[in-house]
Design goal:
Layout: H1 27-50, H2 54-65, H3 71-77, H4 82-94, E1 98-102, E2 108-112, H5 114-135, H6 140-155, H7 157-163
Antiparallel strand pairs: 1-2
Length: 175
């Protein structure tokens, strides 16, 4: 909304652009809105009930699926920045929810503790409830189809990483 008493700088563009994204049909926006809504809901519940956030839950869940996984493998598995995974690993280790077994190399294999498995089981229903809410109006066949489509889309992600790599840094001042 525009405040009629606000003075705009003379170089401010005051009209909508002629070519814009159709925000109601732009798939990346719709996926982002859905994901953000789920993460926000989940994060509030996890923080208030367990003092842990969504990133911590994702690490716990990944270790639950793949005991002995390394932090680097978790980062790849859940598509999360390595520094964020490392921070969660430190938090979860300090809380006694995971342990690290040192390998002969630099990798540390991560495992849930007994307390970690209890935490996993206590946190799991919060994620599952989010899924139930968003899928409630879909049939079992539609859910299967949706998941198949999402896996197909995810298979294309690596192409994005290669395709969008700039040849040279873009300098807005020189463009």
């Amino acid at each position: 909304m525009k405040d009629s008493t606000m003075e705009l700088p003379p170089e401010a563009v005051r009209t909508p652009m002629p070519t814009v994204i159709d925000s109601e049909n732009f798939t990346p926006r719709l996926l982002s809105l859905l994901s953000n809504s789920l993460v926000y809901r989940e994060s509030r519940a996890l923080r208030s009930r367990f003092g842990l956030g969504t990133n911590d839950w994702r690490v716990i869940a990944a270790i639950g699926v793949r005991p002995g996984v390394t932090a680097s493998e978790i980062s790849e598995f859940i598509a999360m920045n390595k520094a964020i995974v490392s921070k969660s690993v430190n938090v979860l280790t300090a809380r006694g929810l995971i342990v690290q077994a040192e390998d002969t190399g630099r990798s540390r294999h991560l495992y849930l503790t007994a307390d970690g498995t209890q935490m996993h089981d206590a946190m799991l229903p919060i994620s599952m409830r989010g899924q139930e809410i968003i899928l409630a109006d879909l049939s079992a066949q539609e859910v299967t189809q949706l998941n198949q489509l999402l896996r197909r889309l995810l298979a294309r992600v690596r192409e994005l990483e290669v395709d969008d790599a700039p040849d040279e840094p873009v300098d807005a001042d020189s463009a």
